[in-house]
Amino acid sequence: xxxxxxxxxxxxxxxxxxxxxxxxxxxxxxxxxxxxxxxxxxxxxxxxxxxxxxxxxxxxxxxxxxxxxxxxxxxxxxxxxxxxxxxxxxxxxxxxxxxxxxxxxxxxxxxxxxxxxxxxxxxxxxxxxxxxxxxxxxxxxxxxxxxxxxxxxxxxxxxxxxxxxxxxxxxxxxxxxxxxxxxxxxxxxxxxxxxxxxxxxxxxxxxxxxxxxxxxxxxxxxxxxxxxxxxxxxxxxxxxxxxxxxxxxxxxxxxxxxxxxxxxxxxxxxxxxxxxxxxxxxxxxxxxxxxxxxxxxxxxxxxxxxxxxxxxxxxxxxxxxxxxxxxxxxxxxxxxxxxxxxxxxxxxx
Length: 349
Hints:
The strands form 2 sheets. Strands 3-2-1-4-7-6-8 form a 7-stranded mixed sheet. Strands 5-10-9 form a 3-stranded mixed sheet. Helix 8 (182-192) packs across helix 9. Helix 1 links the parallel strand 1 and strand 2. By secondary structure, the protein is of the alpha/beta class. It has helices spanning 14-26, 45-58, 71-75, 93-96, 117-120, 138-151, 174-179, 182-192, 214-226, 241-244, 255-264, 299-308, 320-348; strands at residues 2-8, 33-40, 64-68, 103-106, 110-112, 129-131, 169-172, 230-232, 239-240, 280-282. It has one domain (2-284): Spore Coat Polysaccharide Biosynthesis Protein SpsA, Chain A, CATH 3.90.550. Helices cover 39% and strands 12% of the residues.
């Protein structure tokens, strides 16, 4: 089977892209062929050549294509908060790939541990894309949707069963997204978002993350506003490590862990098989090439693949203990106290 896959990178993510691609092919069935697209804006010729040489050296089964953003497309993306423009490149994919009806989008911090044929065979019907649930508090889902509907001048009410998603791994229904003109709608909404980069600028309930996730929030909204919604897929297809990182006890052999996975998979169609182990590991916010997370969950699997492509991803591992101490001081000792002091000061003003 021929399966198209796309990842968006810049020059700083060459090694991560090579690890992802190597893991993709290393776990492919004999009959699987991947057509890999590199979505970029002005990727250097050195990086492109390095990837081409890597492809030829490993003799991968499939094509490598560089998909460049035009200057006009890049200029049309507004900056929102702390986010770079790269996170919004995927919004152009329906028009950049008019010959494709669907494609798998992967962030560069992903490791593939199994063949993706079953994932690619999922029936998206008339939904915008396939995604796992990112289980955030209901109020944020409600607020994001209602604010975007207001900016979009649509009179729609949020429905409680509209679960939020993680856009780091998506099975995109390009045909449907072209039909609703994703690019035009997404860029218009991006230009209307608060430039501060935050929702809830004047009141923030406890435990609510006010940070705007530009493309992710917009994709969530547009899926329900203009298509039949989202096809929710098994958590194994986007095994989000940061979701599990806060676990007090990490016993994956326990009945409680199985119950938690069942909860995360609650919206997966009944006819979709649940993989018995993670198919794609997503290292979002827990990058194993960074000192603080070099010994994190599944980091050892990542380092194995990094070694295969000639990258020493544990080069600074001897700073691990110092990084842990620094992180503890910053987040447990300094920041909470500093925030509380500032809150008290401004409350008196």
